[in-house]
Amino acid sequence: MQLIKRLCPIAQVTVLAVAFTSSGAAHAGVSKAIDATGAIQSFDILGIKLGMTEAQAVAAVKERFPAGTKSSRGTPVNLKMSDYTLQNRNTGKPVRAGVLFEMHPEAKSNYDFVKILINNGKVWAIWRDDTTSTYAYDKVIGDMASKYAGAAPIDDYFDIMVNGRRTSDGTKARSGFELYQGACSDNSWPFKRVNQGDGISLQSSCSKVFRVHYGVLQTNGVKSLGNGSAQLVDLDTGRAFMETLNTAPVPTAGAKL
Asked: Residue 16 burial by CB count (10 A; 0-12/13-18/19+): exposed, middle or buried?
């Protein structure tokens, strides 16, 4: 499996390249949250849908986080936009792969971001990290269930905070929703952080993936969601982009400026 570098304003980090196999020791099996009706095509994250133009996607993020926006914890959102790049393995040069929005660039960390990946001018992936936000459990889970009708719920258990320590009493919770097209493996989502970098794994048997997931916590009887992320990915188009990455003559493979 080849290694690619991603260069960004935060730091130089390593991105794990495409995995073209659909099985492996880490996989728990093929997901049963299969999209039988094409619902995933209508899903969006922060107003961004698969197949949108880059300009439409950028506008959606800026509309969602206008000047003066604060996070759920009251922290100002200082939206910063830059290129998201991967490295051409043959030349060592950065290749523009999309757009990076940092919510809190002053923190200089690979958290709290929106990454939009582009191929031929169109969105093939949206990845949102929402690490430092906290939300009211019942409202947000209800909103998700309505917005992502047709997706399968992700069942979990609440962490219970007692005297500053996390424990569990077995109380069931719903921590998010997921939906897949194709033979997509459980617990093998396209985007993950790897050693403070970004891991990209595009299974050959998987076509589209949607997943939104948060940690669930109960403190003095109050239920909340936090430390979450969401991704919506067209793996077929993503694999097409990756095929151009190492043969690109200029640093704009798969993306039209």
From this structure: middle
Structure tokens at 199: 């891991």
Question: Cβ distance 174 to 155 under 8 Å?
Answer: yes
Angle at 75 between CA 71 and CA 76, to 5 degrees: 85
Indicate the residue type of 172: K
List, run by run, the mean pLDDT of 10-residue segments along the chain (257 residues).
33 37 45 93 98 98 96 95 91 92 95 97 98 96 98 96 89 96 88 88 94 96 96 97 78 48
Contact present, 175 and 215 (Cβ < 8 Å):
yes
* pTM (2 d.p.): 0.86
Which residues 6+ apart lie within 8 Å of 237 measured at CB? 119, 122, 124
What SS3 state is found at 102? strand
Handedness of CA 101, 104, 106, 108 (dihedral sign): negative
Q: 3-class DSSP state for residue 142?
A: helix
Sheet order of strands, 197-200 included: 3-7, 12-16, 197-200, 191-194
Phi-psi bin for 246: left (phi > 0), alpha (psi -120 to 50), beta? Answer: alpha
**Which residues are registered as beta bridge partners of 6?**
13
